[in-house]
DNA sequence: CTTTGTGCAAACGATTTGCAGGATG
DNA sequence: CATCCTGCAAATCGTTTGCACAAAG
């Protein structure tokens, strides 16, 4: 998926978010990568060439983006919050060896039914987390 | 599942863990409840009547229990580590309204196959996280 | 008695907050 | 030009660590 600057700006505006360079940078970066970076990774990456955003601002940007549903938080490992601009339904694969996280297409996993979920629980959505070993970590 | 003091002691010994009152208390408490408490909840609960364990000790106990596989960490919500002495395979239900977490029997969910997992990924295990509303939070 | 665990307090790291100045619409 | 954002530094919160003493086997 390739995104153009203009689309990104329009998307932000459509959510009534002010388009600041920092916010744009955070969102564009998240759209461009697929490894669910942490705040620290974002911070390092964004400031690689030229300083663009402080940590606090990245946190604020992520929060704003999360509130309007453009970004989601991914919690798979202890003590690490990762962020994902892939909003569509998908599952996750976590390499237990190197910690890499990868999106898994929704269609790559059969649809799950909850046969005997206790009555009283109203399920709304679900997600499958698959753990295993990625190719780079295999013998 | 009702556990007797002796079983608990034997289980700990079988894992070569020294049986201290604090460790025993943490593990017995986790076995007795099913709400995946946080460290803070454990700390409060254990010291309700009589002070038994400091926070640091609870952390240490949980780590020891986790290393031998008697306890697992459950990560479903932001910034909260929960602990679970239910070691068997099971899924989780998370109430999006009140945050309650509930175990879901492995058999309550059909078995999941990964039809088109990218070649190169070797899946070892999986878990389904279901989000929705529990009965206490329904209108 | 040797080894390991406990508890306190200090240290730590990720995230949040207060606030003054700056940019956006 | 009113509103919202940024960046800095200080504050906060969960978790970890160092160390002296105590307990387990």
Low-confidence stretches of chain A: none
Count of helical stretches of chain A: 4
Shape of chain A: globular
Distance from N terminus to C terminus of chain A (CA atoms, Å) equals 31 Å
Strand content of chain A: 15-25%
What structural class do helix, strand and pairing data of chain A support?
alpha+beta
CATH topology of the largest domain in chain A: Arc Repressor Mutant, subunit A
Structure commentary:
Chains A, B: InterPro entries: FUR, Fur_C, WH-like_DNA-bd_sf, WH_DNA-bd_sf. Chains A, B: GO terms for molecular function: DNA-binding transcription factor activity; transcription cis-regulatory region binding; zinc ion binding. Chains A, B: Keywords: DNA-binding, Metal-binding, Repressor, Transcription, Transcription regulation, Zinc. Chains A, B: Its cofactor is Zn(2+). The structure is a homodimer of 139-residue chains. With 139 residues, chain A is α+β, with helices and mostly antiparallel strands. The first copy, chain A, has two domains: 5-84, Orthogonal Bundle (Arc Repressor Mutant, subunit A), CATH 1.10.10.10; 90-132. Helices cover 31% and strands 24% of the residues of chain A. In chain A, the strands form two sheets. A three-stranded mixed beta sheet of chain A has the order 4-3-5, with no helix packed on it. In chain A, strand 3 and strand 4 form a beta hairpin. In chain A, helix 2 crosses helix 4 (55-67). The two termini of chain A are 31 Å apart. The model of chain A has no long low-confidence stretch (mean pLDDT 94). Chain A binds chain B through residues 73, 75-78, 81, 93, 96, 102, 104-105, 107-110, 112-118, 120-135, 138, and chain B through 73, 75-78, 81, 93, 96, 102, 104-105, 107-110, 112-118, 120-135, 138. Chain A binds a DNA duplex (25 and 25 nucleotides) through helix 2 and helix 4.
């Amino acid at each position: 998926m390739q995104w153009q600057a203009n689309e990104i700006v329009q998307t932000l505006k459509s959510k009534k978010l002010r388009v600041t360079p920092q916010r744009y940078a955070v969102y564009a970066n998240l759209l461009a990568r697929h490894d669910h970076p942490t705040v620290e990774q974002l911070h390092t990456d964004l400031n690689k060439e030229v300083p663009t955003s402080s940590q606090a601002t990245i946190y604020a940007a992520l929060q704003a983006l999360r509130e309007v549903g453009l970004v989601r938080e991914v919690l798979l490992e202890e003590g690490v919050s990762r962020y994902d601009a892939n909003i569509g339904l998908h599952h996750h694969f976590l390499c237990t060896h190197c910690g890499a996280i990868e999106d898994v297409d929704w269609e790559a996993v059969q649809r799950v039914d909850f046969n005997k979920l206790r009555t009283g629980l109203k399920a709304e959505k679900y997600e499958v987390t698959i753990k295993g070993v990625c190719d780079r970590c295999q013998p």
